[in-house]
Amino acid sequence: MEISTNGWIVIAVILAILGIGGGAIATTILQPLGPNIPFTTPITDISTPIGGDARHQFNQGIWAYREKAYARAIDCFTKVIEAEPNLAEAFHNRARAQANLAKTQAAASDFVTASDIYSRQGSRSGINWIKTDLNVLTNL
């Protein structure tokens, strides 16, 4: 089957539209909110001891966060959560990184989980920090 010149033009236009649209979507989803990033610093101190690999991933997440590589930070904190599901600071940092990428529903869910863990630990400062962060999140 042979494609005419007009057919090739139509295919080229469709591919260009898909490329531009896909690029715009990826840029929107994976880029931070610009100069108005709501959470500029990660939580660095942890409330409970964690294992070596989880600690390494936590540190990598902190580094990625500080470099504004929020998607990579989310991946690192997700790995920490898989290994240490009761580490409030991992949920807290992942929530902050998600908020910085405008993923507000995912951020809210992680903030609530972090709050539950802080509550079980009796960490009033952690709960207060979450309340402040949730207020910031609702104003985005």
TrEMBL record:
Transmembrane region(s): 7-30
InterPro entries (alphabetical): TPR-like_helical_dom_sf, TPR_rpt
Keywords: Membrane, Transmembrane, Transmembrane helix
Name under which the protein is recorded: Uncharacterized protein
Species: Adonisia turfae CCMR0081
Taxonomic placement: Bacteria, Bacillati, Cyanobacteriota, Adonisia, Adonisia turfae
